[in-house]
Amino acid sequence: MVETSFDGSELFARVARELAEQPDLWHTTRRLVELATELTGCTVAALWSLGSGQHANLQAASDPHAGRVLSRILHDIDEGPAHAVLLSRNVVLIPDAEQETRFPRYLAALAESGLGLRSALGYSLLVADQQFGAMLLYSAKPGYFTDEIIGIGSVLADHAAVALHAAASVENASHLKQALLSNRRIGMAIGILMALHRLDEQQAFDLLRVASQHTHVKLRDVAEDVILTGAIPTWPVRRPDGPTARPDGND
Q1: For position 173, what pLDDT does the model report?
Q2: Residue 177, in any domain of the structure
Q3: Region 141-166 average pLDDT
Q4: Cα separation, 222 vs 136, whole angstroms
Q5: What does the pLDDT read at residue 201?
Q6: Structural domain span for residue 132
Q7: CATH value at residue 155
């Protein structure tokens, strides 16, 4: 059932508050599809992104089963409302799938899927000129998306774009911070090897890299061990004649 007991300002405030409370990008996408079904009363809500080869990739769906079925359809058929929204960046409305003349292969597959979806509405999620995907709303009822519901969906789409932009920025910053921290620790380990074992920078880095490859341990973890012990990283080396030796030449 569509919630219409609050005015536009209350809608904006509620959506903004709900999305701002999410801790990361994964939770933001899940809450977005939940809000979409709560606020519009649609049968299924889904978020899509444009992947390599201009394929539509599913990011989240309010109904996991329906999401899997829709994803399978779009994996084989590069057409339909989600694909159209991602490429055109325009709002796409299908009032009745049985009367629609666009997307014939997609609609045939949808009719055979058993989902019983009859109408769809899609929004591009844009911040400035950057697209953060598409939000698609699907209903089992033909003609479901009235002007009122389209307006509510538009408000949600605007907030969804901003929320996804913010969540992605935080996630990217976190990854960058971790990468910088790892690089610092690796640099510290290289410096320790250079100072204690009279190696040049390339020799020290090569020791870390080769130890990481041979032990299947991440480079930053090998570096942490060097920082703690000051020792040259070692790994078992198999001589051609059989016995195992260490890279420092000691048996």
Answers
A1: 54
A2: no
A3: 90
A4: 46
A5: 81
A6: 8-172
A7: 3.30.450.40
Tokens describing residue 5: 């007991």
Q: Once rounded to an integer, what is the mean pLDDT over residues 141-150?
A: 96
- Distance, in Å, from the CA atom of 130 to the CA atom of 82, rounded to the nearest integer, reads 17
At 181, list the tokens. Answer: 């921290």
Confidence band, pLDDT 50/70/90 cuts, at residue 237:
very low
Domain boundary pick from 127, 155, 172: 172
Q: How many structural domains are present in the chain?
A: 2
Is residue 41 within 8 Å of 158, Cβ to Cβ? no
SS3 (DSSP) at 52:
helix
Q: State residue 4 phi and psi, 5-degree precision.
A: -130, 20
Please determine, for residue 190, whether its predicted confidence score (pLDDT) is greater than 50: yes
CA distances, 33 to each of 41, 136, 147, 150 (Å):
11, 9, 20, 15
Q: Do residues 211 and 130 share a domain?
A: no
User: Is the residue at 187 inside a domain?
Assistant: no
Helix (H, G, I), strand (E, B) or coil at 143: coil
Give the ranges where the chain is alpha helix by DSSP (H): 8-20, 25-40, 64-76, 81-88, 104-112, 147-197, 201-215, 219-229
